[in-house]
């Protein structure tokens, strides 16, 4: 029996098409392109994630649940997706047609693909939950005002959670025994879960587009300068890259579903999944970059770059207005009068006051910025001399008049 298995492992994994000769020595692969893509993903996403963590810990001085989820998503990307991908690049004929592989090489690739796919489902569950919570916190805060943005954000959040919980479970336990998922020589009972993946890719594309549209709709209804809206919107359009990769992945998933050349189509589909996850991670981290740029403005070597970023994103340094403070007054810019950065909570309060109409006008470029520009102090706040003969004379004259 052992000899039969050893002989089977040396056989071609798939019969080549008519007129095609199998090449086990030097076949076509995507090793070079896949390796460059994976290195770029890790090299760009890692600084972005740690910049977000630094900004929330050092500048904002508060970590929310989405920050922990984004950090966990990055760990899953590096450990669960990139590590098996690098092993596949250096130890298998990645991207080769299946007829150019032996059965042993096919088993090795399918095992790594299984780990990557399960990690992708779990990582997307965590990442989309973080993005959904971030949208709810920023654009649909819990103030008792429940509009379309509130309900749509909740629908996307819980829909993605349910979908990717199911996909993760199906990917991990699609066969019994589990070895039958990747070992074609093991007989087991398996579910045809690729159909679920194909339907899920369509829902995934729709949810990606909505996660881009919801912030844009909320941003462009704010009462602020157009340049400020453009700057804030630019922080969220990175998600368009995830939408494009997700849309391109649909036909690739259909081809994978109907094709017997699994290794070739799975690499193409997996590459788009990697890029989709990468753009989603970037979209979750980019919104904190303006605050990080403001922090850098206090550091001399980065002052000019930070000033350029603030002008591009519509931020400006402001000074506090004189007179009694109001709950709706805010100071947006590098520092307030005491030199402290504005926190996320204060920013969300300001956004909510704008959305609910309690903030009458906002001019992000006005150095004497005060949201309640039409506010008039009551008469008793008027400044006049008190406790002197001159003040008593003025008071008596006022009564007699």
Automatic annotation (TrEMBL):
Lineage: superkingdom: Eukaryota
Origin species: Lophiostoma macrostomum CBS 122681
Domain Rhodopsin residue range list: 52-290
GO CC annotation terms, alphabetical: membrane
Region (Disordered): 362-401
Family statement: Belongs to the SAT4 family.
Pfam family, one: Fung_rhodopsin
Membrane topology according to the record: Multi-pass membrane protein
Biased composition (Basic and acidic residues): 390-401
Listed transmembrane segments: 67-89, 109-127, 148-174, 194-214, 226-250, 270-289
Keywords: Membrane, Transmembrane, Transmembrane helix
Chief site of localization: membrane
Localization (cell): Membrane
Protein name listed in UniProt: Rhodopsin domain-containing protein
């Amino acid at each position: 029996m052992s000899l039969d298995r050893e002989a089977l492992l040396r056989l071609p994994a798939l019969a080549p098409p008519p007129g095609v000769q199998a090449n086990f020595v030097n076949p076509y692969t995507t090793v070079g392109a896949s390796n460059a893509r994976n290195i770029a993903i890790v090299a760009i996403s890692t600084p972005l994630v740690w910049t977000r963590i630094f900004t929330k810990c050092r500048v904002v001085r508060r970590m929310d649940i989405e920050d922990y989820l984004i950090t966990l998503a990055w760990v899953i990307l590096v450990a669960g997706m990139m590590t098996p991908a690098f092993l596949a690049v250096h130890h298998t004929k990645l991207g080769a047609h299946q007829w150019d592989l032996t059965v042993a090489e096919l088993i090795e690739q399918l095992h790594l693909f299984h780990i990557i796919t399960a990690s992708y489902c779990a990582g997307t569950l965590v990442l989309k939950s973080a993005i959904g919570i971030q949208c709810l916190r920023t654009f649909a805060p819990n103030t008792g005002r429940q509009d379309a943005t509130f309900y749509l954000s909740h629908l996307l959040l819980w829909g993605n959670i349910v979908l990717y919980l199911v996909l993760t479970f199906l990917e991990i336990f699609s066969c019994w025994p589990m070895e039958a998922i990747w070992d074609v020589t093991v007989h087991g009972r398996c579910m045809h879960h690729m159909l679920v993946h194909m339907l899920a890719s369509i829902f995934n594309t729709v949810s990606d587009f909505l996660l881009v549209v919801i912030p844009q709709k909320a941003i462009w209804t704010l009462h602020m300068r157009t340049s400020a809206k453009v700057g804030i919107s630019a922080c969220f359009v990175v998600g368009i890259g995830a939408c494009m990769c997700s849309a391109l992945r649909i036909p690739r998933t259909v081809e994978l579903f109907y094709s017997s050349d699994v290794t070739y189509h799975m690499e193409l589909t997996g590459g788009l999944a990697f890029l989709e996850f990468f753009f989603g991670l970037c979209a979750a981290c980019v919104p904190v970059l303006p605050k990080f740029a403001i922090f850098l403005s206090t550091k001399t070597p980065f002052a000019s770059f930070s000033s350029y970023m603030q002008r591009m994103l519509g931020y400006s340094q402001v000074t506090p207005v004189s007179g009694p403070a109001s709950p709706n007054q805010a100071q947006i810019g590098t520092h307030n009068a005491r030199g402290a950065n504005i926190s996320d909570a204060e920013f969300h309060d300001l956004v909510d006051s704008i959305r609910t109409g309690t903030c009458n006008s906002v001019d992000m470029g006005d150095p004497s910025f005060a949201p309640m520009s039409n506010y008039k102090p009551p008469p008793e706040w008027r400044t006049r001399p008190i406790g002197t003969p001159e003040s008593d004379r003025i008071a008596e004259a006022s009564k007699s008049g």
